[in-house]
Amino acid sequence: MTSQYSTHWSLEPTRLFLNHGSFGACPDFVIAEQRKWQDLMEKEPVRFFEELMPGLLQKSRHALGEFLHCSPEDLAFVSNATSGVNTVLRSLHFKEGDEILVPNHAYQACRNSIDFVAQRWGAKVVEVAIPFPIEGPHTVIDLMKSAYTSKTKLVMIDTVTSPTGLLMPFEELTAYFESRGVEVLLDAAHGIGMIPLNLGTLGASYVTSNCHKWLCAPKGTAFLYVRKDKQKKIQPLTISHGHTFPLGETTRFRHEFDWTGTQDISGWCALPAVIEGMADLVDGGWEGIMQHNHELAIQGRNILCEQLNIQPPCPDEMIACISTIKVTETLLPNVVMHKPDPLHELLSEKYNIQVPVWSWPSPAGRYLRISAQLYNSIEQYEQLADALVNELK
Ligand SMILES: Cc1ncc(COP(=O)(O)O)c(C=O)c1O
Predict the structure, then answer these.
(1) Residue 114 Cα, ligand 1 centroid: separation in angstroms?
(2) 248 CA from centroid of ligand 1 (Å)
(3) What does the pLDDT look like over 1-18, one tens digit per residue?
(4) What is the end-to-end Cα distance of the chain in Å, rounded?
């Protein structure tokens, strides 16, 4: 049986798509909305960029600010969470011996960015080993707190981890570190649209999130939130006209981030319609979507665990809308994380199932991650479980 919501997406109908988590997937109305803005841009490009763009982007920032419970003035558009993380890290200054804390479940691209910056300044990267399977959020809290020293200057925390699909206790950790003067960079790539975010009260110095994942917005739409007192020290990756514009009524932060060169801004223009249109699809609006996807992810995870006769690796409270299980105990030789795993290829070729599988060193094994979005259904996880039982027996 297919989901009642699947008609809103034009996903390949014969394919079982269980990987919303990697790049998202847009419903048809979102694609049409983006096209509308692209058409307008191409009809009269100069008018679009010089006259219409400031008002359009302001409207989108306002819609986002309302959704995230923060001032739109503290939000900048970036193309993706990797750029958001890089924007912060490459703006910051460290002293030799300063410590940057990061859990070992961090997304590798963002971890690379930390290593790159730490090396440049002579700072030390302190990796915090988080177990998986895990008993509960308190394990993360205890381990992260015990890694704190007087030299800790920055902590990067995920809202939801990529390799292990764990909903992190990011609110408690943010309060703990920020109250000690340690800046928190929240990697909320899996954030907006997946879990409630209240940036106005969270207190993090920096938050970046992908709208193209769980908000179902067009690709290349992400934001960077910078707390007001930190804005003076954060510059976009691209320095442009805004660096020297007369300030007038606005801030340097606004000037610098509002123009970083010519690019397709249609995805950002589409955001107000995306937020409203998605909410209209489900009873209960966005709260209803998050609850639906959360319950579906848990049901899907439980089906896989029962069929494969394994214990769920984390409590339900650490699941949002993605869930990871370990499918084999051993790493494959010469297999690198995020490169196609033979099991991924097999599920794709033989069963027409798109689901990520990767090797991960800690603890060693091969892991499979399911996603749950409105267009998915229970039967799809049952089909995946049958395929896995068949191949892993
Ligand atoms: C935790 C986390 N951070 C960052 C990213 C990077 O997202 P993007 O490729 O859109 O920059 C991802 C992507 O899956 C992620 O899961």
Answers:
(1) 14
(2) 36
(3) 789 999 999 999 999 999
(4) 26
